[in-house]
What does this fold into?
Amino acid sequence: KNNADYNTSKLRYVYTSAITPSQTIDYNLKNGNKEILKEQYVPGYDMSQYECRRVFATGRDGVQIPMTIVAKKDIIPLKATIKHDKPNKCLLIGYGSYGMSHDVVFNFKQLSLLDRGFIIATAHIRGGGEMGKQWHEDQGKYLNKMNTFNDFADCAKHLINTGYTTSNQLGISGRSAGGLLMGAVINRDPGLYKACIAGVPFVDCINTMSDPTIPLTVGEWEEWGNPNEEKYYEYMKSYSPYDNVVEQQYPSMLVTS
It folds into this structure.
């Protein structure tokens, strides 16, 4: 938090996690004591009933891709083996662009799903910033953008192969550039997912970014490349959702704009 008093002996910060409602905390720099000043009130919520864990999926090129998984404890108990014997409904969320880390914070809206037996997983795929600058700069933009889509699909396959869920129980969700991710992955492997939520999806990449008069276009070239250059045009055309729609059985979809 912003602090105008440079002589204070306390540090004030906000903490939250996938299962911890937002807390405003004072940390005493002299004695190490922590004082919770304020905590988000969630009626009827009992944090002890939920579990959050970090798992890693192995990408097709051998890279370890982190995922955050949240569920009720009776769904994925602490001592669960690597191979789960009772798959559950699952929502897999992704973004993976601009070097932005997909921070997992407490979201009371997800309790409705968790309490009905859903697993909610967040895939921290290349293109984001979770594993350092190279996760984006070297491995997740320009002519390496395909890693973003491959990583998301490999995370979905990991959840299926380790028994967390099945293709028939797996929904996926992403917004904006994450909506581009949704379009790209369902075009390439529609049978891997049962349902898809694409929020304000950026699906017409080539047409949009070919016009430099559109206010956001030139800045977008720093992420995807300039399609007016042949090498970027051909690469972008290989994943652009609008340009890769074919007649096939797609998952059920909700698209918002």
In short: The CA atoms of residues 23 and 40 lie 6 Å apart. The chain has seven helices and ten strands. The beta strands are 10-15, 23-28, 34-39, 50-58, 64-72, 90-94, 119-123, 170-175, 195-199, 252-256. Residues 146-161 form the longest helix (16 residues).
